[in-house]
Write a structure and sequence with these properties.
227 residues, alpha+beta, 4-stranded mixed sheet, 6 helices, elongated
Length: 227
Amino acid sequence: MTKSALSFPLKSGSVSNDNSALDGLVTLLRSLNLTQSDSETLISVLNERVLALSGPPRMVTSSPASRAGGQADLVAQPREFPVTTTNMPTVSETGSPVTVAQHIQDDEDMDSLDPIIVNTSPLRAPPTYLVIQPDDPSYSDACVAMADGCVLAQYHKTFYNLPPPPNPPPPFYCITRGRYIGVFSGWENASPKVQGVSRAIFTKVDMLELGEDQVHKAIERSETSQA
């Protein structure tokens, strides 16, 4: 992630963009006894500044070979989930991580595969995006876990789905055992994930956050299963 240099007047009538300005600002901030609320406000202002300079979050387009070790990136962003509609291996309803991994292995041009953006924060908290590159070991698992038109999230290293914003309509269906795991908006979106699945487990909830809470609890108890 590119670090944006901050600047402030060093003396009347002059402004500097060199590192000394940034160092001075950091020193000043460290000397202040900021409350948690003040700190969160400051972070919000800085995030807005970064977004103004760099634009909204987008897929990383650099080739995996240019990224050291294929490490995933953590990117803090405001509450705007990207719905992943990337060029990824096609997974059938009966697909498995093994078949997807084989597809990726056989792909001579890995640059044709797009990264996957995953939100690793709960809905009640500011989001943090995890960018998974095609050469990351978890890439195939993410491909298998992600349902069409959904936002992919992760909790305790387990992937699950959420409906895309803004304002998905209730009712919501929390699925912890089905073709896909997560919370889905409307029975028309949830039913294909559970119908025909042996011992499918799902519940109807009125609020998206409550559905996500149920998914998290099931993950903590190791009770989620993608059939």
